[in-house]
Design goal:
The protein folds into two domains: about 20-55 and about 125-190 and about 285-370, FAD/NAD(P)-binding domain; about 60-120 and about 195-285, 2-Layer Sandwich (D-Amino Acid Oxidase, Chain A, domain 2). Helix content is about 35%, strand content about 30%. It contains eleven helices and 20 strands. Strands 5, 6, 12, 13, 14, 15, 16, 17 and 20 form a nine-stranded mixed beta sheet that branches.
């Protein structure tokens, strides 16, 4: 049995024999950082491997209520809250031109007893805040280098780093992104797909206040979404459209792009100004048949990739991180090796199901917008009208969207 050894969280891990840990998390994005913090804060000797910072691409994340609860438990939320805007209401506008176009639908978080469905914060600030906490968390050792390979032993896995060091862990967590080397090396089966679209992202300043309302226009080329940012007169943009059009828009100067955004938004927020960097995100998806292998568990985009629709991607990754913490603690309580198949079986089953259900919903919405078949338009319109007209159904869907009740991780309840 591997004996965990804790090293200083603020000093580089020493060269020489492999340092030993219960869990090694590979990947220093938001999901990996959250998983490492959740484990270390409760006494699990944890290593965090990775050095890549987030790009400044004008992207934000709408952290749903369960994710905010998780970050609050980790002690991160108080620092993020002043830089986040509440999403108190969601407005959906059908702009497809369909014969079955329903009237705009509005959903209020107050109806399900919440101040907000979630809180919108810039990705860069989220990652930077998580990283700062990781540097000062006892029991969490940072290896600021890329992983170079994973070898399996009977009682532990040996992780090699590109700088020549190595470490040993009973469980390795792959949070190393959509092109995960750990997933590839483990031979885990994946399914990938793409859409004939791209998403333009940026930050906007606008004349009229957003009043904490997130607005999503459903168009024939994809959703066009304006999400509130702090201050009342700033929002983040996710404009999903045909790939050639997205590339053309991304090449416009700030004045021309702001005018295009204002036109697409029907001037509902008045005049616009580009107020941050831009990003162009490919519209693709990835799923893993089973996010576990011997001594390996995948979380975040290593396990599932979503197009930027419906605020599902990172929130799902944070649920992975919280659920992984539960799996490790269940193994501890049963005096089991956290990397053993029996310890990972439940995690693999529940996380795989959650990802498949969310992925199917996002895929169905996006594909329904791209087709002009009248029966599809009718079903989409009737569904939105039913949500508007039937309060119990509306409340059930809102609650499920914020946090699934079945199998919700402990730190998100």
């Amino acid at each position: 049995m591997t004996v965990p050894v804790q090293t200083s969280p603020s000093r580089p891990a020493p060269a020489g024999p492999p340092a030993r840990f219960e869990v090694a998390v590979v990947g220093a994005g938001a999901a990996g950082l959250a998983a490492a913090l959740a484990l270390a804060r409760d006494g699990v000797a944890t290593a965090l491997v990775g050095r890549h910072g987030p790009p400044a691409d004008g992207r934000t994340v709408a952290l749903l209520d369960g994710s905010v609860r998780f970050l609050a438990v980790l002690g991160v939320w108080p620092e993020l809250a002043p830089h986040a805007a509440p999403l108190a209401e969601l407005q959906i506008v059908d702009d497809t031109g369909s014969l079955f176009r329903p009237p705009p639908a509005r959903f209020s978080a107050a109806e399900i007893g919440l101040e907000a469905f979630g809180w919108n914060v810039e990705n860069t600030r989220l990652a930077t805040t998580l990283r700062a906490h990781a540097r000062t968390t006892p029991g969490l050792t940072l290896f600021e280098a890329d992983s170079a390979g994973l070898r399996h032993g009977s009682e532990a896995a040996l992780l090699d780093l590109e700088d020549g060091r190595s470490l040993e862990a009973q469980l390795v967590v792959g949070a190393d992104g959509g092109r995960s080397p750990l997933r590839t090396a483990a031979g885990l089966q994946t399914r990938t797909w793409s859409y004939p679209q791209a998403a333009l992202t940026t930050l906007l300043a606008h004349e009229r206040p957003h009043r904490d309302i997130s607005t999503e226009f459903h168009t024939r080329t994809g959703p066009f979404t304006l999400v509130p940012l702090p201050g009342g007169h700033r929002s983040s943009l996710v404009w999903v459209t045909a790939e050639p059009a997205a590339k053309r828009l991304s090449g416009l100067d700030d004045r021309a792009l702001a005018a295009a955004v204002e036109h697409q938004a029907r001037s509902m927020l008045g005049s616009m100004r580009i107020d941050g960097p831009r990003g162009l995100v490919p519209m693709r998806g990835l799923s893993v048949a089973r996010p576990v292998a011997p001594r390996l568990a995948l979380i975040g985009e290593a396990a599932h990739v979503f197009p930027p629709i419906g605020a599902q991607g990172l929130n799902l990754g944070l649920r992975d991180a919280a659920a992984l913490r539960d799996a490790v603690f269940s193994a501890r309580e049963a005096n089991r090796d956290p990397g053993a198949p029996a310890s990972l079986a439940g995690f693999g089953r529940t996380r795989g199901m959650d990802a498949r259900l969310r992925g199917a919903a996002v895929d169905m919405l996006n594909r329904s917008l791209l087709t002009d078949l009248l029966p599809v338009d009718a079903l989409r319109g009737l569904g939105l009208m039913a949500l508007t007209a039937i309060p119990p159904l509306r409340r059930a869907v809102m609650r499920e969207g914020v946090l699934p009740r079945l199998g919700a991780p402990t730190l998100m309840r």
